[in-house]
């Protein structure tokens, strides 16, 4: 858990970072400076995180229910000719079909990611980071739901994948949310923006 917090960029102990001022300046991405206390800004960022997560989760859940009901055990539907089609498969591995022999491990990892993000939410003061973590949370919840409730059993369920580009692995909206959230985190890290809103300039 501590290692995951270190990678995301938010220390788990107060000693690991400098003390924050009582009223930190507004993050650069909001275009304001020092007008709003942290107690007012923090809940807004947390609300954004969970709103993004809920939207991502519901879109993933709804799309899976629809394609299982309408497309499973049927011929694939071509959307862009041979370049992109809808084809339902059951994936026991990780995102994009990797590691099918480690279903339980991937389930534990997804659950751990959810717990870490929930713990870090209270320290969040950056809007872009709230969006990125919300995408990760929604995607992890979407695939974890399949792991828990779908066949062949609890914590061993196969994830429903249905987006099939040509010459690429079949995936779902939860995978897409996780990848987009990860890419956004990399971009924010390269730009020197921390989850607490601090901007580091080299």
| Beta-strand content estimate | 5-15%
Number of beta-strand segments? 3
Query: Total number of helical segments?
Result: 5
User: Which strands sit side by side, in order, in the main sheet?
Assistant: 1-2-3
Shape: globular
The SS-based structural class is mainly alpha
Biggest sheet details: 3 strands, antiparallel
Portion in helices: 40-55%
Low-confidence stretches: 1-7, 10-40
Order of helices and strands: HHEEHHEH
Kindly provide the radius of gyration, computed on alpha-carbon positions and rounded to a whole number of angstroms. 19 Å
Distance between the termini: 29 Å
Mean pLDDT level: 79
What does this structure look like?
This protein is mostly helical and 202 residues long. Helices cover 49% and strands 8% of the residues. The chain contains five helices and three strands. It has helices at 2-8, 38-70, 103-120, 127-149, 173-190, and strands at 77-78, 84-91, 159-165. Strands 1-2-3 form a three-stranded antiparallel sheet. A hairpin with a 5-residue loop joins strand 1 and strand 2. Helix 3 packs antiparallel against helix 4. The longest helix has 33 residues, at 38-70. The chain starts with a helix and ends in a 12-residue tail after the last helix.
A few lines on this structure:
The chain has five helices and three strands. The chain has 202 residues and is mainly α. The protein starts with a helix and ends in a 12-residue tail after the last helix.
